[in-house]
Every structure is written in C-alpha cells, then in structure tokens.
Predict the 3D structure of the following.
Amino acid sequence: QSALTQPPSASGSPGQSVTISCTGTSSDVGGYDHVSWYQQHPGKAPKLMIYEVNKRPSGVPDRVSGSKSDNTASLTVSGLQAEDEADYYCCSYGGNNNPYVFGTGTKVTVL
Amino acid sequence: EVQLVESGGGLVQPGGSLKLSCAASGFSFKTSWMAWLRQAPGKGLEWVANINPDGSETYYLDSMRGRFTISRDNAKDSVYLQIRSLRTEDTDVYYCARHLHWAFDYWGQGTLLTVSS
C-alpha cells in the first residue's frame, strides 16, 4: 500500500492563495469521489477541512476549496492567513482491500 | 459539543499487549461508524481500523490484521483498540475518530503509545 503523493512544502504571503496536490492512482483518488483533506497544527489533532472531494464541513471557511482531476486531487486555500500555517494531509478511499490511504503531508508556510 | 477522549497509552515493552479506549460524547455514538488512526512522531497519518455502528463489521489495514482488534461498547459510548505482540514500530500517537461521509470528521486529542525495552 503506497501513500498518496503530496509536495513536502508550499508557501504564500498573506492574502495570496496556495494549492496543494495529492496524486494517487485509479484504484484510489481516481476511482472514487471519496477524497478528504485534514489540517493539523503542531501538537494538535487533525481537523477535517474537505470531504467527498469538494464539500466543506460546517465551520470551515469558504476560502478553502477542493477539486479532483483524474488521479490527482487538490486543496486550495485562498486569502491566506497566519492561522493557515499548518500541515495538510489528503486521504482517499481505496476499495475494500485498501480502505483508506493518506498522503505524505504538506507543510504550508505563510510568509 | 462533540468530544472524543482517548486513554490507555503509555510505555510498554516489546511483545506486550495493550488496550486503548476512546470515550465519546455529544453525538449519537450507537449510530456512528468509528475509526482508529495513528501517527508516528513527526510523521504522517495512517488509518488503522474501522467499525460499524453495531460492531458486526470491522476493517483493518492489511499490515495490522491479526495483531490489532477494534471493538466497541455502545452502552458505554466507547470504542477500543487492542494491540498484541507490540513492536517498537507501533510507537505512535493513536487517535480515535468518527467516520462519516468517507472521512473522519471528529478526532480525539490522541494517546501516545511508546514501545520500548
């Protein structure tokens, strides 16, 4: 079972946008619309930011959005704020034999 | 307010066993799928296991099948993870989470398990 591939880091200035990619295969990301994204601040539990590719849970601002094309999902955070500085992980359902696989994680830095 | 509180972590010797607990409140536990996930210090997240609302269906990461057992007690609003034949590589923070819409929407604060002699 291989982890989904994310860039190790991404950055942007306050007010700018940052987009994080999450690349899998046709057996996970490309095969299901079951991609979710999590934000994790140091020493804290992960927080769900996006589920089912592009749906936001209650309380997540609309400047956070998700999308998917073929085997790659993306998370975009617009209007960057200092509080957005954190690690971000994608996750995809991968079928009965490999139910859930996470990405390698991306550290977002607000310059 | 939804709360998930894990307990049971600590220092355990290799080869030993441990049962982690997670107490839930603030939502309908008995109708919820639940999950355990883990994270090595400074590393990424890894899904461990899921369990359906009545406990009749369980799913595991292939590499953990056999040593890990997820269970629940709906009368106590609690979910458990038993780990046998502990290895040093099981040293992780273990999180319980509610599983909904193919995602994990509420997480506990985690409990640290250290496997070392």
Summary: The radius of gyration of chain A is 13 Å.
